[in-house]
Amino acid sequence: MAACAPAGETAAPSGGPVYPTFTAPPGVTPSPTPTHTAIIPPTFTPVPSPTPTATLVPPTATPTPEACLFAGGQITQHTLRTATDPLPWEFRVYTPPCYNEHPDARYPLLILIHGSTFNDSQWDNLGADETADTLIASGKVSPFIILMPRDRVWNEPTEDPFGEALIASIIPWVDQNYRTLTDRPHRAIGGLSRGASWAVHLGFKYWQSFGAIGGHSLPVFLTDPPRLSVWLDAIPADQLPRIYLDIGDKDYLLTNALEFEAMLTARNIPHEWHLYTGRHEEAYWNAHVEEYLRWYAAGW
Question: What is the rounded CA–CA span in Å between residue 29 and residue 205?
Answer without folding.
Answer: 124
